[in-house]
Write a structure and sequence with these properties.
The protein has about 350 residues and is α/β, with parallel strands linked by helices. It has two domains: about 240 residues, QueA-like (3-Layer(aba) Sandwich), CATH 3.40.1780; about 80 residues, Beta Barrel (Thrombin, subunit H), CATH 2.40.10. The chain contains seven helices and 17 strands. A hairpin with a 4-residue loop joins strand 6 and strand 7. Helix 6 crosses helix 7.
Length: about 350
């Protein structure tokens, strides 16, 4: 197995550049344009993305919806504080979860939330130390969760989110994510309207983002890293829209690494898509040959993360690190609530 070293993707990031709050106007964030063939960069504002999309191009958006997956409760017997993070629905009322502290959540442990409207029992310990938890409640699950759950913001965001909707894209539709597809947070209804009026086609795909996205790469040899599986779905309409753009010689531009991973997982060897759904563990790193994607809109990612590796597969590691260096010098805002890059 050839070597691809984790520290090849390291860069020094000043703490103060990690965005803690979303901007008031989603599309007012900054946009760093990176020309993937030359490495040239240009400083723009996100709404300028419109000038770089051509009629006939296809913009792929992930319409997953983040669920308020963070539940704070107490152990029924001792009253000890327990935090549960919903990762993946396994059955109607059974979820795979991350429980903190894990040592207090052995099988049989019972947890109560809020005023007792929601109760839970740990049934099993599964891989990675995750817990299977069975929930008990009256009424509609979504309503109970909405009243008791919090948005599961990434650990590097320490401010409390004032408006739940700001960690949600304006086109979020299908519930199931533990984290937002953050490149999509910059789009407003108005900007999407201008994009379609210009003759750019929009294809909506779904990938429910798991916390595996944020899982650090521990192995020094990147190729030994194992990606968590995430559920995706592509409708007949989305597949046809994307195929049509490719066939007519236009570009497919994905907003976000999740949209990118969805189309690349689902495409056949000729880059064609059809209606499908499944689980993907695709890991994209330098050397990968893209089958569908021509361009990418993406936020600025953590050093040594699988997401920086994906971006490097598209635009070259040296060019990406050079662009990141420029972004740091120019004080771009990083991570989920930060600024974006356009790579074409």
């Amino acid at each position: 197995m050839e070597q691809l070293r984790k520290n090849d993707f390291y860069f020094e990031l000043p703490q103060e550049l990690i965005a803690q709050d979303p901007l008031e106007d989603r599309s007012a964030s900054r946009l760093l344009y990176l020309e993937k063939d030359t490495g040239k960069t240009k400083d723009l504002t996100f709404r300028n993305v419109l000038d770089y999309l051509n009629p006939g191009d296809c913009l792929v958006l992930n319409n997953t919806k983040v669920i308020p997956a963070r539940l704070l409760g107490q152990k029924e017997d001792t009253g000890a504080a327990i935090e549960i993070l919903l990762l993946k629905r396994r059955d109607k009322d059974v979820w795979e979860t991350l429980v903190k502290p894990g040592k207090k959540a052995r099988p049989g442990a019972r947890i109560v939330f809020g005023d007792g409207r929601l109760r839970a029992e740990v049934t099993e310990v599964v891989e990675e130390g995750n817990r299977l938890v069975r929930f008990e409640y009256e009424g509609i699950w979504e309503e109970v969760l909405d009243s008791l759950g919090e948005m599961p913001l990434p650990p590097y965001i320490t401010h409390k989110l004032q408006d739940k909707n700001r960690y949600q894209t304006v086109y979020a539709k299908y519930e199931g994510s533990a984290a937002a597809p953050t490149a999509g947070l910059h789009f407003t209804e108005e900007l999407l309207d201008k994009i379609t009026k210009k003759g750019i086609h929009i294809a909506y795909v779904t990938l429910h983002v798991g916390l595996g996205t944020f899982r650090p790469v521990k192995e020094e040899n990147v190729l030994e890293h194992h990606m968590h599986s995430e559920y995706y779905q592509i409708t007949k309409e989305a597949a046809e829209t994307i195929n049509q753009a490719k066939e007519s010689g236009h570009r497919v531009i994905c907003a976000g690494t999740t949209s990118c991973r969805t189309v690349e997982s689902a495409a056949d060897e000729n880059g064609r898509l059809s209606e499908c759904s499944g689980n993907t563990e695709i890991f994209i790193y330098p050397g990968y040959r893209f089958k569908v994607l021509d361009g990418l809109i993406t936020n600025f990612h953590l050093p040594e993360s699988t997401l920086v590796m994906l971006v490097s597969a598209l635009a070259g590691r040296e060019q990406v690190l050079e662009a990141y260096k420029h972004a740091i010098q120019e004080k771009y805002r990083f991570f989920s609530f930060g600024d974006a890059m356009l790579i074409l």
